[in-house]
Amino acid sequence: MTKPNRQGIIFSTGLIALIVAAFTVQVFVWPGIGSFGLMPRRARGLVGIFTMPFLHANMGHLLANLSALVVLLGFVFAFHSKRLPEVVVRVILIGGILLWLFGRQENHVGASGLIYGLAAFVLVSGIVQRKFLPVAAAIGVAVMYGSSLFWGLVPADPGISWDGHLAGGLAGAFIGRKKGRRR
To answer: Rg for the chain (alpha carbons), in Å?
Structure first.
């Protein structure tokens, strides 16, 4: 485990607060803001690379994303607290770019791409580091989210951004592979 730092706590708290604030604005002030999600291969959709994790379809969507996000931010914080902001930003950017390039022509909203990216980061970096606690955390993530992580990648429900999940997961795995080696 890395020595916890204040920056990781402030960043995580701020991220959660921004997601909740964006949803509050979406519900009470500007309902049309949801149209600023990620729309693949459209110039207008490029802004969604940055806005997608902050926009949610409804309260259930928000709460499901927040609960998983808090747990996964905790795992990343525990083992990579100094790198947490960088990991989150890189997952959002790389995952968003992959989704923009290869995703279905839908308006993608929600933090689930980030969630899949963090889960993949924890899994891959834990294995790459070959240290007991990160590997145990990786196994914990796999057990906690195992079947839902798998089923979220299956294109069974047109209302679920399986391609966003896949893009985020690929981004997190790539970052975990690279970051897991550094000490």
So the answer is: 16
Helices (H), 29-161: 48-51, 59-80, 84-102, 112-129, 132-151
Tokens of 1: 């485990």
Measure the CA–CA gap between 49 and 118, rounded to whole angstroms: 16
Give the pair of three-digit tokens for residue 8.
């990781």
Category of 154 on φ-ψ map: left (φ > 0), alpha (ψ -120 to 50) or beta: beta
Mean pLDDT of all residues in 40-62: 96
Q: Which residue has the tokens 């920056």?
A: 7
Q: Report the percentage of the chain scoring pLDDT > 90.
A: 69
Checking if the pLDDT of 181 tops 70, the result is no
The pTM assigned to this predicted structure is: 0.92
List pLDDT tens digits, range 52-111. Answer: 999 999 999 999 999 999 999 999 999 988 899 999 999 999 999 999 999 999 999 999
End-to-end CA distance of the chain: 11
CATH H-level superfamily of 6-179: Rhomboid-like (1.20.1540.10)
With the CA atoms of 97, 103, 108 and 112 taken in that order, what torsion angle do they form, in degrees rounded to the nearest 10?
Answer: -70
Nearest to 163 by CA among 124, 112, 120: 112
